[in-house]
Write a structure and sequence with these properties.
Elements: E1 15-29, H1 30-35, E2 40-42, E3 46-48, E4 51-61, E5 68-76, E6 84-92, E7 98-99, H2 104-111, E8 112-113, E9 116-129, H3 138-147, E10 153-158, E11 161-166, H4 167-173, H5 175-182, E12 192-194, H6 205-217, H7 224-233, H8 237-248, H9 250-256, H10 260-268, H11 270-279
Parallel strand pairs: 10-12
Antiparallel strand pairs: 1-9, 2-4, 3-4, 4-5, 6-7, 6-9, 8-9, 10-11
GO biological process, one term: protein ubiquitination
Protein name: BTB domain-containing protein
InterPro entries: BACK_BPM_SPOP, BPM1-6, BTB/POZ_dom, SKP1/BTB/POZ_sf
């Protein structure tokens, strides 16, 4: 991939800084691309550092038509301006470990999973500048305002705990909070508000997914049932699917069904238990 750098006047101090990065997983059907020689397979187009990129994988012959190899190319698709980037690509083996190269005889044995090869590509977009700009510290300043309760703020009682927040930030992030805190509703003049279910009623979708990610990271045979109950109760299909996938593994299922939380899940959401039986073919 050709990259260029703008010329600088003599005497200016140039610093290279990281602008943005991306990590992309690209799966290729091995039999399809090696059977039809010179066939090209493209990844989806993705963005990094304000530029558009694409991974291209093509097959080619090695020592005659009986053998073939794979070539991976990272294309810079943006036409507006040049870019400087560090690009690295590697194969993912069956154990989930990276490898920068692999012999053809090793591909089928070590790298093909369900007929596919997984290519991981990382791109770090750089910028040369004689006047480096520090990262934004707006979040730090907003945090100071919150800690010092400077300006108009409101407190929330959630599960017996008190959380402080700024009305302006809340109204910017949630149309429901905007109506409650700036409109004619009773909450507009209340210094403290009690919330039962903060995410769904207040359209805080990103906060909801952040919580779901935390719960997903802690999945185990002891927590999967209660986590699935939360996903069902708060209508989070992303978290529910992760829990169902966890149950789909036989070794996990055999241990999880013996927990007290699984029994409680059946009492609270019997339809979810039916989904587990149906999905796992039990």
């Amino acid at each position: 991939m050709e990259m260029s750098k703008q010329s600088r006047s003599e005497g200016s101090e140039v610093q290279t800084t990281l602008v943005d990065s991306a990590l992309v997983k690209f799966k290729v059907d091995y039999e399809e691309i090696t059977t039809h020689l010179r066939e090209v397979v493209h990844s989806y187009i993705f963005s990094a550092g304000g530029h558009m990129w694409r991974i291209t994988c093509r097959s080619f012959t090695v020592n005659g038509p009986a053998k073939c190899g794979l070539c991976t190319i990272v294309e810079h698709l943006s036409k507006s301006r040049c870019s400087k980037a560090i690009v690295e690509a590697f194969l993912m083996d069956k154990e989930g470990n990276p490898s920068t190269s692999g012999k053809q005889t090793d591909l089928v044995e070590n790298y093909i999973i369900d007929g596919q090869i997984t290519i991981i590509c990382s791109i770090m977009v750089l910028s040369d500048s004689s006047i480096p700009v520090p990262p934004s510290d707006m979040g730090k300043h907003l945090g100071h305002l919150l800690d010092n309760t400077v300006g108009t703020y409101v407190s929330f009682n959630i599960g017996g705990k008190t959380f402080h927040a700024h009305r302006a930030v809340l109204t910017a992030r949630s149309p429901v909070f905007r109506a409650e805190l700036l409109g004619s509703m009773a909450e507009a003049t209340m210094p403290a508000i009690t919330l039962q279910d903060p995410c769904d009623p207040h359209s805080l979708d990103r906060l909801k997914l952040t919580c779901a990610q935390k719960l997903c990271d802690g999945l185990s045979v002891d927590t999967v049932a209660v986590t699935l109950a939360c996903a069902q109760m708060y209508n989070c299909p992303e978290l529910k699917n992760k829990c169902m996938d966890f149950f789909a593994k036989e070794e996990n299922f055999k241990k999880a069904v013996l927990t007290k939380s699984f029994f409680q899940l059946g009492l609270q959401f019997p339809s979810v238990i039916d989904e587990i039986w149906e999905r796992d073919g039990l």
